[in-house]
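3.2 Worked example (two chains)
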Amino acid sequence: MEQIYNPYLPLNEYVPDGEPHVFEGRVYLYGSHDVAGGTAYCEGHYVGWSAPVENLKDWRWEGVIYRRDQDPSNADDTLQLWAPDVTRGPDGKYYLYYCLSFLPEIGVAVSDSPAGPFAFYGHVKYPDSILGGKKLQEFMPFDPAVLTDDDGRVYLYYGFAPAGEKEMPKKALWKGREVVFGEDGMAVELEPDMLTMKDTPHVCVPGGHHTEGTSF
């Protein structure tokens, strides 16, 4: 038996918040991107790494797959890209879901290849019948995860679910604007366009504020 060992990426590479997915016979690793000597989390652009499923020692650098400033909300490149996720949509394209540091919206980028590069596609939004189709900004969109189920339906998950009231701040400032944090893990089904919610999100993992007066 051959021993597999860590770290499996080069020592000068830092990809936390890893989300591995198998596409087309390869394991693709997506995550945020720290830099050596950095002063904040996730200062790098998103990069891609992949390996054949039959040899998880043979990792290949796919290059920069998405840059911070590709999102129009961060054209001045002042915010960091936090933990992302990727799924293959019903149309066969690959969709990257991400958030920028303390920016209350979820961005989406798209590519024909799981290795990227990804191009900005839009922001997750309500249908026109709800809030006039405005961008998702409630419940503090944060660290999205996405699932395309076997039946082709697509589900988006995001948010905080702290165990206690003191584990996270209530508010933050973004470019001089106050952002109110949500305190629950949320779930919502998306339309086939991969951007529009089918309905309003609902709580799937309740935060500690739901437990007042209980032993939980």
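3.2.1 Second chain
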Amino acid sequence: MRLFLAILLCKLSRWALRLLGRGGTALPGTLALKLCPDIVARLSRDMRCCVVTGTNGKTTTCRMIEKLLSESGVEAMANRSGSNLERGIAADLCANAELTGRPRRRTAVIECDEAAFKRVCGEIQPEVIVVTNVFRDQLDRYGEVTHTLESIRMGLEKAQRAIVCLNADDSLVASLAPDAPDRVRFYGIDAALGAGSDVSDAPRCIICGAEYEYGFHTYAHLGGFRCPKCGYSRTEPDVAVVGVDALTTEGSAVEIRIDGEVYPAAVSLPAVHNLYNAAAAVTAGLVLGVAPESAVKSLAHIESGFGRMERFELGEARVTMVLVKNPAGCDRAIEYLSGIDGAAAVFCLNDGTADGTDVSWIWDVDFERLFADPAKAPHELIVSGRRAEDMRLRLKYAGADENAVRIVRGAKELADEIAKIPGEVVIMPTYTAMLPLRAELAGRVGRKEFWR
């Protein structure tokens, strides 16, 4: 009876909140958990579940997995809104369930917060787990990378039947392999796509502390790492991007090796980090029974998640919104922006709980590269958000003319200003800054709310 009442309460509260124009992604799940604390375990019991965790790339990787399953004939439920704590997962499981608790869709692709992973894994008992990467993120909440890694490790210990898909190029993630012996599939990139970065959250060996050597770099601490002292090194991936024919602001043309066989692939999202997401999705899809040809083909039809390389046509502006939340991810956004000549840049910095109350991470981002060549610097700079002044100061020290950096308050006012800018505009907001601005932009172009 408690399960029935919890599902009913969740559905009714979600319906009411959405009638009011709210997302209903957290509160309905909170209410359901109050009434039935084991509701996640009970509703997922008869489902095939793939859980994706890690610092960056969770939402996009989930979208990719959902797409490749759909194109192979499997309709999966997913927490597409990105509400990835236990309450958000509970709300989406309730939405997928009949009042009896029987699931409408029996396959689930679930994005899970790293800190919540250890609890959620014990309840869901996933068939597949994907770990994208581990970067320094929200120090006030997660602490150092070793704490995040330990939380993921504890989750793996509770998921003894899961096949674990690990990023071979991330020395931190790859170190999780001994916690899932004989159940690991590695993915990665077998190509040097960058010269590394000054932002590295794991310069030293997690086993012995010696400094890593690299055969190649992709970005941050990812690449062909090897410890010269103890020998800990990158494992050859089962699924790998082995050739890049084109890497543009629109997408990529690549070759993907799957268990020794090479397939040509088009990835419809730009940037190197989305190649990692693509390799992760393909690896998970293979474990779930998707044929390699079908998995690779689906990558050409991926749509961006809300705020993740999402595009809008607004007035004279062609807008790309790129969510940022930590140095490694923001460096990727800066790299993307740097590749667009004559773009305008909008930085929206908040310090809410979901953003991380400590915004000192902006000083570890390589904003200087935007102003290294004045001829290629953004032709217009706007800052917004509760910590707009901090962002303006950071840009000044990076080389921007402080007097040329405009502060614009409010989502409506900011959207009005963006619409006046001709050409490419790249918006880089933190999470709570992104939500109202994305809602404003979506409303103006007739796009759905992020939770639809």
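3.3 Remarks
The radius of gyration is 21 Å.
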